Amino acid sequence: MSQPDFSANLKPHPQADGAATLAQERGQSDFDTNAISKHLFGDKYLERQARILKIVTGEKIFSKTNQANLSRPDRYKLGLARGKKLRQLMNEYKWDDDDFLMAEWLVDDVLPHHLNISLFKSAILEQCNEEQRNFWYPKLQAWEIIGAYAQTELGHGSNVRGLEATATWDQKTKDFVLHSPTLTASKWWNGTLGRTATHAVFVAQLRIPKKGGSGGFESYGPHPFIIRVRDEKTHKPLESIIVGDIGPKYGYPAMDNAYMLLNQHRVPHEALLSRYATVNRETGEYVKPKNTGAMYGQLTRGRSQIVMNARLVLARAVTVAVRYLSIRRQFRDQDADDQSALEEQVLNYSTVQIRVLPLLAATFALHYSGAAMQKLYERTRGANAQKESDLNELQELHFTSAGLKSLTTEMAADGIETCRRAMGGHGYGGGTGLIQLNADYLSKPTVEGDNWMITQQVARYLLKKVKELSTSRSNANSSRLDASLIRFRERSRSPPQFSDLSDDLSILEAFEWRTAFLAFEAYESREVKKLPWNSLLVEFRNLSRAHTQAMLVVYFYEGLRSLDSLPSSTKTVLWDLFRLFSLSAIEKDAWQFQRSGAIATKALDQLPKEILTLMQRIRPHAVRIVDSFTLPDYLLNSDLGRSDGRVYESLFHRAHVENPLNRITFNPRYWEDELVMGSRDDGHILSKL
Amino acid sequence: MSQPDFSANLKPHPQADGAATLAQERGQSDFDTNAISKHLFGDKYLERQARILKIVTGEKIFSKTNQANLSRPDRYKLGLARGKKLRQLMNEYKWDDDDFLMAEWLVDDVLPHHLNISLFKSAILEQCNEEQRNFWYPKLQAWEIIGAYAQTELGHGSNVRGLEATATWDQKTKDFVLHSPTLTASKWWNGTLGRTATHAVFVAQLRIPKKGGSGGFESYGPHPFIIRVRDEKTHKPLESIIVGDIGPKYGYPAMDNAYMLLNQHRVPHEALLSRYATVNRETGEYVKPKNTGAMYGQLTRGRSQIVMNARLVLARAVTVAVRYLSIRRQFRDQDADDQSALEEQVLNYSTVQIRVLPLLAATFALHYSGAAMQKLYERTRGANAQKESDLNELQELHFTSAGLKSLTTEMAADGIETCRRAMGGHGYGGGTGLIQLNADYLSKPTVEGDNWMITQQVARYLLKKVKELSTSRSNANSSRLDASLIRFRERSRSPPQFSDLSDDLSILEAFEWRTAFLAFEAYESREVKKLPWNSLLVEFRNLSRAHTQAMLVVYFYEGLRSLDSLPSSTKTVLWDLFRLFSLSAIEKDAWQFQRSGAIATKALDQLPKEILTLMQRIRPHAVRIVDSFTLPDYLLNSDLGRSDGRVYESLFHRAHVENPLNRITFNPRYWEDELVMGSRDDGHILSKL
């Protein structure tokens, strides 16, 4: 393999010249890639990406060439080495936290140290009193300690109140006794804790002896404690702690998700993170949480990050799909006269377009939604300049953003797979560069609030809204949601039945009408007919989806409306994407739009044709649109999606030059146990089982 | 870890006692598990499963404990060793081919030798002339040679006529010259060929010099040649061959999918497999294929196997989900008064039921459809007893079974993921036992005919049918499809608008009416309006789906109708499953059923309630139903889905006892390059990159 062989002289068939195809694709569109790139990401982000990219691609440890061939233990080791190296680079180049996160994103591994800079850090910042924060924060920032966040248990995830771990106050010794009373009380899934962490925030049910010495305990619910997990020198677990990695999962091979049990493990009084609540050291009295106020902003910020991340993940899958499917040709057009013509570009088939192009459009819907949430958060941060309508919107977003988490992570997770299948045979190979992204991202629909379960929160808020609005009128501080519910209440007997699919405002109103229709229907079921909550969960989920789709459509629309300095032809493409996104969503739920009277039946019948037309309009710009996502080839790590279009050369190189399996000659004869030819190994793989 | 520690004394929380829960689940239902098990699989299959299971679980090499931790090269090695061992066992126990395949299924790896017993074997059986078959078949059966099937290329998959490899007849030397003229002509994806095979069937464009010596060649399209790939002694590729493994894919880590290039590689005249066509050795004349007759039966058989396999795959995912979700409890019922009650079994939530129970029902739909196809194949095999109506049905199935491949592999692939997500957090872990199944099965929607592309075949047949039927009437030999198209033609102005969702015959007819509606609509678009083929692909796909769903519903119905000796309470459950399957399918496409007039609007509005009721009726039987699939724990390899319900004990054991990562203490300090604590390894992972 190290010798040049006859494959060195071979080129792809002329029709498979990807570089020429992408040049042609880029030449046929005047979509302003650079302007959109700046518009989507901003100069600062793009500068950071370019700067960090140069540094990480200069280090061998970040090479992705062989990582898919490694064993799980080696993948963890590689992650550990990469984490260390990134931190060394951080010191060397004086990176800030965002620089570090950019590096981790480009390297495309969630590294073993990750929880120290994410959940552990937030816990220290948000749950410590000042003294605790002053003590711990510098240590974690310097990576003197590596922290994890141990909340979820083997037996309880979403239901935090059901956690089994206990923290019992011992008034005599002034200690808390942390304990895992059962096997299901074992902490579980906690990242960084399995092998890496030195410390953890341990969440346990706080129990304080009852007054009067009569025995028994009063329970105060889950509280956070900071504990040392492993010895400072040996890095072995402390004696009363059992901790380890839970083993291979779908994705995140470099991350050490943990199990952890504590056996009557004593920690001092100051281990309880005491910003909101504490136990009086002398009297053993529980000091109640202050009224913490609604932290509307924080949640909105976190959820906007989820949406923005879903956008990037989807952008990545769509970039690979659009580029490859432009280059890939298969079959000639059935209706073509000239049978000597090149085969058709696969992206020209409507069955391929209808899977990929709405996802291309969806990346923009996610972008404008995430951006609007960020802006709202920024606008409402300072004490000044807080309009009441902003605060209303923020509050509403706080309660309904569960729907955004649910829908957008589902869109991205499903979107990766849709793109993969659209790529046909080669979509199943390592050349997609999507295997690890796919496996990693599959966690999102179930973590941080299961996507189906949390839709109840949205429904609950909408039910409350319908109840409140039964008497009120729209006013200056009403949100769009309020106004749409009031509009529905007033006109429910004459539904709008919009029929002009090219009228964007009608589209917006149609989405909002559907939401209102479903909200009032749910209200009727629950509040009037008093049906069991459990019998309505599916209805609630549909309601949440409908409302969230309306939000995406509205944010998308408003994002485009506020555009200014872009060339008009580029704007036209963006508006086409808006329409494709909206009409595709309507088509998928056509029955709801019909049933609610939001859209006229005739218009629904026209949808397939309209969607086809929009796809034909967008198609010539597809490559330039994905170019505007500016995802580096190093990140994509994809033969199919590389920006220079050398798909087939790259696939062949990965197989013929890079694959370590091809350095071994095997012995396939079943009557000989030897596996590697001539090695007399006697089938030694057994020792690894 | 080898020492007992305090975790040895811990048990799960009492509410998490899976064994007790499953006992209760099994006690609350009288669904006749044993009878259904026999009904679904037959005694012969169950006997074989039990017999082979005992043998493979007795061999250490088939232990699945650590395989998810291995590197890709080691996974291939393990596969190679397993393949050899299975063949040794085959000799020892005198297994037939079905025994061998059962063993491979239970071991749950597609092994490196697999193509020798599948595609290579079929090619030898079907494409050889008698002499060739007599020569090659005994060799492959004895595994003296290991064969692969090299058809697909880097640049062409579905479009077989577009293959680039050439086979040029040299009249002087009486040789064929096999050649790969470009990089995209490289064979690609071909299983078993990468490292294992000694031989392959090589598919290439046959070219014969034009008569008259004027130069140039006549092309005859793709033909199969048998070639030796590797040296008999050294197992190194022959000199004019470049061959290797393409590297890691989504799944199939034990399989060596190949690339292969041939450089002016000469093979003798008899290398051309000559059952249907050959080249006259003396004159160089092409001898035309005989009229091969329509091989309706073979395709039907192959497709029935795909359906039956999809059934088992889905059964496996549903078994894991139903058992785990019965045992898993989370949150109390919102409406419950007693807040000290156990938390709710997750399978009781309607949002979980609506994802899992229709898939449970779908396994039966797939079963009866696959079984009906098998029966039809058997019935039409012999020369005797062939009713014309059977032959009609077989012909129809031949042309429409692409829709079954497309829909059922999609149902199974999506179904695994739906079950996984329904399991929440633990659904993302290795404890599901679904990770490799999921990754392997994702290939199915795109291989052996891309699921979207092949729906054109169904549409093309239905367009032809509509055309033919424009004048004919229903007669004794009409298929159900014919009859339903004629019915639609005659009554298209008065659609049935069925309103009784409990009337099974109406349900069947509603599905058929929808198909007919879409078929006539597509006919109008293509044949009357003459719209471009490419603009109709999405419509065609919808039509294929509709027709295929109708087939599944009809087969399911007919399968249940022919049931006899089952207890009536068990039959009732099966009929509920039929209804759940049908009504769920209608709900997902409610707009089509409304638009076509198949079902009345009011009835469509009632669907969610009907579905909820059916799910509540089926729920108590769920565990016993999945028990009837009789999938061995060894196959499932699932902590969550094990038949004894010891979910949490098993998860903990996998993590704490089995995970090799926990045998190593790491050094997390970023200022030290050492990775394994105390090893002074200086970060040696670099050498593996």
Automatic annotation (TrEMBL), chains A, B:
Matching Pfam families: ACOX, ACOX_C_alpha1, Acyl-CoA_ox_N
Species classification: Eukaryota, Fungi, Dikarya, Ascomycota, Pezizomycotina
Residue ranges of domain Acyl-CoA oxidase C-terminal in the record: 506-673
Family label: Belongs to the acyl-CoA oxidase family.
Organism: Zasmidium cellare ATCC 36951
Name of the protein described by the UniProt record: Acyl-coenzyme A oxidase
GO molecular function, one term: fatty acid binding
Binding, FAD: T152, G191
UniProt-listed Gene3D superfamilies: Acyl-CoA dehydrogenase/oxidase, N-terminal domain, Butyryl-CoA Dehydrogenase, subunit A, domain 2, Butyryl-CoA Dehydrogenase, subunit A, domain 3
